[in-house]
Amino acid sequence: MKFLIKLMLGLAVVTFAVSCARTPPRGGAPASYQPAPGPGATPQLGDRRPHAWTGGAPYGHAVHGIDISRWQGDIDWNRVRGSGISFAFIKATEGGDHADPNFRRYWYEAAQARIPRGAYHFYYFCRTGAENAYWYMRNVPREAGSLPPVLDLEWTNSRNCPRRPPAAEVLREAEVFLQLVGRHYGQRPIIYTTVDFYRENQLGRLNAEFWLRSTANHPSVTYPGQRWTFWQYTGTGIVPGIQGDTDINAFAGSAADWSRWLQARLVR
């Protein structure tokens, strides 16, 4: 009987330890929930579809953040911050006439939770670089302490704008956007892009800081020779405080590097 009691107590302790080892998303964890396979600095983060990485995994990076749009719905920002998220990029605008309906709310709520946040613009190729730039500037506050602007360059699947201009035009109009928006906010925008778009348009020729999407391999494999600051490593991430899949990103350096980067790149 004493042995049975000890065994039951031992099982209870193990169960409690496992339950405390991660914080599932609000509303309970789906059956497929798995914590990041570590030994990352953010063990509360997870991935609904984890896989083996070649060329290096993202989990060992010290600084992780999210990018979001209206599809994330209501967000518990304090819980997001408590999970180890260090930054957020929020969708603000598209093209020359569309604004994300949740942008202003997210912008305010992230600031209240003391999460460094910036705004990104989804580029439409049926508008000029100047039109895209002025629409972004019209909707995103020039606020001290915010992260640099972001230009999201990827091919659109829109029926309203199926246009795919040649690389020379892409580079020329992107540079117009970078210069106009950079002057307005006092920080040259970061470029977010995908593997196919980067290759087809030779984006490495631009004078820019890069945020690269690579969900199967390390960026050194998918973007050989390209330096990067942010790496979007999953679109099926699980972040406490957010319902459903969330994009998660890693910063290239250490926590000390992150502090130095913020000092140099925050809008003033």
From TrEMBL:
Keywords: Glycosidase, Hydrolase, Signal. Pfam families: Glyco_hydro_25 (PF01183). SMART domains: Glyco_25 (SM00641). Gene3D superfamilies: Glycosidases. It comes from the Bacteria. Residues 1-21 form the signal peptide. Residues 27-50 are annotated as: Disordered. PANTHER family: LYSOZYME (PTHR34135:SF2). Belongs to the glycosyl hydrolase 25 family. This is GH25 family lysozyme. It comes from Paracoccus nototheniae.
